[in-house]
């Protein structure tokens, strides 16, 4: 059971920006949710990490998955890729990662892209938790 001091502290820790906006911004642009919360170091670290992982995956000729398949693993990989937000949409617009995987290195690239998206999902939820006061810095 929370004491009155803990409840007051949680209410004061809430961000003036809408938690939903922070969640969506954090998903679309890696680290943006933390930037809105003025967590500059954490936001920059997340931005660099997610963009670097996604870029490494693209440079290894990894596949960027699309939603029009009926295979379960491809659907799960698509959800992971979609987690990268604007990076995913930019890669699809520039037709990056459209070729089928031909080598083991390209398969590693595909996994880098999926993990970058999943990491970005976690970062967006972390920013949302900070904004609602459920988590402290």
Structure description:
There is one protein chain. The chain is an all-alpha fold and 137 residues long. 68% of the residues lie in helices and 0% in strands. The protein is elongated and about 50 Å long. 34% of the residues are buried. Residues 7-12 have low confidence and may be disordered.
Task: Sum this structure up briefly.
The protein has 137 residues and is mainly alpha-helical. It has helices spanning 4-13, 19-28, 32-36, 40-59, 72-82, 86-93, 104-132.
Model regions low in confidence, pLDDT < 50 over at least 5 residues = 7-12
The percent of residues in helical segments reads 55-70%
Structural class: mainly alpha
> What's the average pLDDT?
86
Order of helices and strands: HHHHHHH
Sketch the major β-sheet: none
**Proportion of beta-strand residues:** under 5%
Radius of gyration: 17 Å
H/I helix tally: 7
Let me know the number of strands.
0
| Quaternary structure state of the chains depicted | single chain
Separation of termini? 21 Å
Shape: elongated
Spell out the key features of this protein.
137 residues; mainly alpha
Present the secondary structure layout.
Layout: H1 4-13, H2 19-28, H3 32-36, H4 40-59, H5 72-82, H6 86-93, H7 104-132
Helix pairs in contact: 2-7, 4-7, 5-7
């Amino acid at each position: 059971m929370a004491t009155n001091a803990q409840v007051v502290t949680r209410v004061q820790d809430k961000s003036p920006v809408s938690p939903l906006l922070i969640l969506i911004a954090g998903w679309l642009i890696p680290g943006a949710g933390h930037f809105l919360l003025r967590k500059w170091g954490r936001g920059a670290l997340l931005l660099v990490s997610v963009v670097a992982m996604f870029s490494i995956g693209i440079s290894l000729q990894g596949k960027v998955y699309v939603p029009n398949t009926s295979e379960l693993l491809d659907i799960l990989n698509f959800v992971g890729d979609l987690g990268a937000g604007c990076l995913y949409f930019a890669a699809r617009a520039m037709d990056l990662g459209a070729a089928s995987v031909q080598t083991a290195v390209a398969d590693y690239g595909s996994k880098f892209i999926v993990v970058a998206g999943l990491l970005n999902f976690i970062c967006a939820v972390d920013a949302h938790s900070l904004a609602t006061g459920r988590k402290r810095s």
